[in-house]
Design a protein that fits this description.
Elements lengths: L1 H14 L8 H26 L11 H24 L9 H41 L4 H6 L29 H29 L3 H10 L9 H13 L5 H19 L3 H47 L1
Helix pairs in contact: 1-2, 1-6, 2-3, 2-6, 3-6, 3-10, 4-6, 4-10, 6-7, 9-10
């Protein structure tokens, strides 16, 4: 934060001959950013405090939903910052607009990838459900449909999310600098969320590890380090997968064994129950993803409309 204050001060002095602002303006802007970061930190701490016990069960549908809930919370804090510094998006310079619009586009792509991963799980759920209908009349065919859910390779090129161009030097005012610094924090959290979400739903570490590589290119964003250490331990070190998928696979394996032994009634009931819970949790998550997609798209379109009106 001291470094940021120095940057703002230097920028202010460079512009002093052209603008008649008081030094207090820089202090106000710096204070606004200092207030924004605790807001972000509070959101992350709430997520950390909601971690289930044991920590190995952190990867579950309910926790994924809480991760996604970070996106509107962080955006709300960002809008609060803009209000504090009296700098609406329609007043931004081109560099900030490009950054924000590109970030919105990245979120839409990541939400699409999330929907694709959910569709993969939905197909697996349907296969299990169909297998249940065949247990008594065609047990051998039922077994074919009760194979464990396999990890899905993520098709999203996460490394391409971050522009190679360094945008830091493109901002020409104190307010632009504050917006840039805040967007770094917002993007760090947003990208981290999808690294966790996609790895959880896909059942592989690649999206999470690639997202960590992306985040390393942001300078000094440390707000997510504490909670990320917990996620790294579960996802990478222990190789844990989504709790509900593990339970579904375990139940399906038990049913396959029961079919072979000729005693299927209890195993059928167990899998039916787990499928019902799985379906309900997935529906909640699918609605959440769809709502976020609509919100991000609407916000992006609204900003584009405002910019077009300003330029007329």
């Amino acid at each position: 934060m001291v470094l940021l204050a120095q940057k703002l001060s230097k920028l202010y002095h460079n512009m002093e001959d052209h603008h008649h602002h008081h030094r207090a303006d820089v202090d106000v802007l710096s204070a606004s950013l200092q207030a924004f970061r605790p807001d972000v930190s509070t959101c992350l701490k709430q997520l950390l405090s909601s971690n289930p016990e044991p920590r190995s069960e952190i990867l579950c549908f309910s926790w994924i939903q809480q991760c996604l809930n970070l996106l509107p919370l962080i955006n709300k804090a960002f809008l609060k910052l803009l209000k504090h510094i009296d700098y609406p998006m329609t007043s931004w310079e081109a560099a900030s607009l490009d950054e924000y619009l590109n970030y919105g586009l990245n979120l839409l792509e990541l939400l699409n990838s999330t929907s694709s991963s959910l569709s993969h799980l939905s197909q697996a759920k349907l296969s299990f459900a169909y297998g249940l209908t065949l247990v008594h009349n065609s047990p051998s065919t039922a077994i074919e449909h009760l194979k464990p859910i396999q990890p899905q390779s993520s098709s999203k090129d996460i490394k391409g999310l971050l522009n190679k161009e360094d945008c830091e030097g493109r901002f020409g005012s104190c307010k632009e600098r504050v917006v840039y610094e805040a967007m770094v924090e917002m993007k760090s959290v947003g990208f981290w969320v999808f690294g966790v979400v996609l790895s959880s739903l896909c059942g592989e570490t690649k999206p999470y590890l690639e997202m960590k590589q992306v985040l390393e290119r942001f300078n000094g964003s440390l707000l997510i380090d504490v909670i990320d250490s917990c996620v790294f331990d579960v996802v990478v070190e222990k190789g844990e997968t989504l709790k509900e998928v593990k339970e579904l696979n375990s139940s399906a394996n038990c049913l396959v064994s029961a079919i072979v032994d000729g005693e299927t009634s209890d195993a059928v009931m167990d899998l039916e129950g787990k499928l019902g819970v799985f379906e309900k949790k997935m529906e909640v998550l699918e609605k959440k993803v769809a709502a976020l997609f609509s919100k991000v798209l609407a916000t992006r379109n609204e900003l584009l409309h405002g910019v077009r009106q300003r330029n007329q």
